[in-house]
User: Fold this.
Amino acid sequence: MVAAAAATRVAGRLELGGKGPASLCADFPPRLAAERMLFAKLRHAGLILAARLVLNAYDRSDGLMLKTFSDSASVGYYGFAYRLIDIAAPLSFIFVNSVYPLLSAHHAKGETAEFDRLYQRAHDFLSLAGVSISTGVILFAPHIVTLIGGNDYAAAVTSLEMGDDMLGRRF
Assistant:
């Protein structure tokens, strides 16, 4: 593409992916251009990292408050139950990431009916999966805790059942 553009003296654009295209001029130093593009990408990654750290701190603030108002054993049981919920939570994100390219393709082609149909089916699936997993966790919480943590963590069953509401809302 660049060779064809050079032959006809048409300006070309180098797409590096993502939302930050870069235009390179012939008289601009390549090293400086690379440094500036890298800086922009790293700055964006840094902002995402900072946002993730703030969200993690917010997610864990309940454990800190629990530690302030109760004994360390209760905090341990709560932490154990929360970790089990953390294991299942990414399932909805994995599903959404697999459906998103299909939705994007239908949207780009203007296939509104196909887009609506797929969106509705994905929503129905996630709703059914969320309710099913949430119900299963509540029904089998004692068995799940015993299987993974042993009888020493039997007190975590209540925390898992209560925290299961968070899992259902994530779906």
Observations:
- Helices lie at 2-8, 30-69, 72-88, 90-108, 112-149, 156-170.
